Amino acid sequence: MVATGPTPRQFVDMSCAEFIAALGSKAPVPGGGGASALVGAMGIALGHMVGALTIGKTEYAEAAMLRLQKEAERLQEELLALVQQDAEAVEPFIRAYRMPQDTEVEKTEKARALESALRGVCVAPLEIMKKCGAAIGLNKAFALMGYPPAASDAGAGIMFCKAALFGAAITVYINTAAMTDRTFAQKINGQADALRSEYGSLADQVFETITDQLR
Q: What is the C-alpha R_g of the chain?
C-alpha cells in the first residue's frame, strides 16, 4: 500500500489549496510529474482565455480562433488526465520497491518488477512533455492571432508550459537513471532531450517576441 492520503483518482477534483497541501506532504503522489501536468493545463488554459477575449471583435477571424480553442480544450483535458495517470503509475513502483529480496529468486523478481515499473513511470511524464510542446505551439498561435492586449496571457501560458515541459523532463531522467537497461534508458532520454530542446527554444523565442512588443 502507498502512504496514506488521497487516492490518485481524487487529485484533479481537489481544491487548489488541497492539491498544494498534498504536493507538499511526504506522500509519494502527487509529485513532479503530476504537478507538471497541472501547470501545463493551466498554461494552455491561459491561451484559451486569449481566444475568449478575442472572439466577438470584428477584426479577428472568429472561425480560426474557435478552432484554436477547441484544440486547447482537448490539450487541457489530456493534461488533467495525465495528473491522474502519473500518480497511478507510481503505485506499481512502490509495490516493487517494497518486495522482499532475502533470496536470489526474490532479488531477481524484485529487479524485474522494478525495471518494469521504472518504464511505466516514464510514460506519463514523456506524454506530458509532448502535450506541453503542443501547448506551447498553440499558445504561440493565440499570441499571434489574438487580441493584442491579451498577448501577455499567452506569454504567461507559454512559460507555464515550458516549466511543465522541463519539470516532466527531469521526472523522466530520475527514472531512467535507475534503469539497468541502459539502451532503453538512453532511448527515452533522447526523446526527452529532443522535446526539451525543440519546445524550450520555441517558448523562449515566442516569449521574447511578445515581451519586445509589449515593452
A: 20
pTM of the model: 0.91
**Grid coordinates representing 25?**
506532504
pLDDT in tens, 88-122: 998 888 999 899 988 999 899 999 999 999 999 99
Let me know: does 8 contact 31? Beta carbons within 8 Å: no
30 preceded by cis ω (within 30°)? yes
Number of domains in the chain: 1
User: Phi and psi (nearest 5°) for 153?
Assistant: -70, -40
User: Is residue 11 domain-resident?
Assistant: no
**Structural domain includes residue 24:** no
Cell reading at 151: 498577448
Is residue 180 classed as helix, strand or coil in its secondary structure?
A: coil
